[in-house]
Amino acid sequence: MAPAAITPVSPPSPTLDNTSRLTKAGTITTLEKTISNGATVAELDASRLTITPNLNPKPVPAPNSPEVWSQSYTTDHMLTARWTEKHGWEAPEIRPYGPFSIMPTASVLHYATECFEGMKAYRGDDGKARLFRPDRNAKRFLQSATRIALPGFAPEEFLKLLKKFVGVEAPKWIAEKGSFIYIRPTMIATAAALGVQRPKEALMYIMMVMFPTLDDPSSRPPSVPTPGAPLSNGVTESKPVPASKGMRLCASRHDMIRAWPGGFGSAKVGANYGPSLVAQGEARARGYDQILWLFGEECYVTEAGGSNFFILWKNKQTGRKEMVTAPLGDGVILEGVTRASVLDLVRSGKLGDVDVTERKFTMHEVLEAHNEGRIIEAFGAGTAFFIAPVQDIHFRGTDLVLPLGQDDSKDGKKGDEFAMTIKGSLKDIMYGRWQHEWGCVIEEQTEMQYE
Predict the structure, then answer these.
(1) pTM over 0.70
(2) Quick one: where's region Disordered (predicted)?
(3) Less CB within 10 Å around the terminal CB: N or C of the chain?
């Protein structure tokens, strides 16, 4: 693809329309304090960073090995920065990866005062290490932190720390062209006191974890169970599992809700994920990959597991190709970085004449479009699974087999061409084949200087 420009939508300031007046007021106060730098305590300062080497480095495992599929194999170091209400941010440190020591009364263990981000670093075809639109992750990290009363920070200082950390670890951990590694920035409240109150101490940390290519099912080793495999208690799935061509979704029931208007679904906090694991496990036991989360009696389509959901169909009124996804603004949908990139890319016209619509739509509309033969394809978009085409959706006793899941698709198409074109374009940016402003090149530290 030629290195033509895409005019992206500028990353918005944290939006608070989805919160109550009291929550909005408190969050705005924290954000204004962060932006104005009006605090009397120390701000997060990347220039104070120190580095302590890991004297017992680990070997790098083979790509898609069982160690990598465990999603627990970390790099040699982590970055930490401690905050207290009295003194503010202490000097950040890159130090050997290892356990933390927190008291049993720590706020994070009782009140879910925790937020995180999901990112990746890539080794490009040109040999350079890159991040993908990290400014968006930084701003969303700040929004999530302030939403649950954790301390604010200057996003530009966080980005400096992130880039430095990636620059230290990338030479060893993503040495091969075409490789990547998952990055997990996190913040937790650590004050050793019970009581429902704003956290007085917190810890920000960044770690890197080896991840498999989740968007490629063929990379899964035999030791890793596939969706629908027998459960550990001997119960097998209730639904036969056909040969998988793409992601299989099971629409949530009326008694399962992931997020709600005015809540915190738009913030990347741990409390959004833990309660969803029971439904996720149930779906996998029945042979599905993810839950397609619906909301309300109307069955509004929201997200697919932890990914944003897109559908490409022929508009009922105009007959034109239209890509539809749920809108932001009411606290239900997470403002995904991949989501924003898909929208910007398609709106640029680089992928043809396709209308882009962000609106509420129901599963009944999807079912109608399926019955009328108007669905072209559907896919999920997120950092971990990247771009994942959908082959079928189970909804209240009905199986909607999309073109990808059909043996003989219309016009001889497989039913994932649009999604795969998007995926290819974004990968070209991530791996430096398309020189684009979304690809953030990292200055690497091949010989570490320790203080």
Answers:
(1) yes
(2) 1-22, 217-242
(3) C
